[in-house]
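Case study 2.
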Amino acid sequence: MKSGRKREWSVYILRCGDGTLYAGIAKNVQARLKQHNNGKGAAYTRTHLPVELVYEKNGLTRSKALIREAQIKRMPRDKKETLIH
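Prediction:
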């Protein structure tokens, strides 16, 4: 890790009101969760409320969080469910 890079990012998975899963990244997951539930988050979650946090991995650089988010988004649903549990 290069000096100056902070490991302050998290990758998270939300379970939406219709049972679908949504992955994202944030510095403050609890604040981001509130934004999603208040209709201020991603367009997808705005139409699938309410959402609940079901997975969170902390301590990542922004780059690593983006990479992990992309990996999660490419996973089939059964693999995501295994990750959550």
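The domain at 9-84 is CATH 3.40.1440.10 (GIY-YIG endonuclease).
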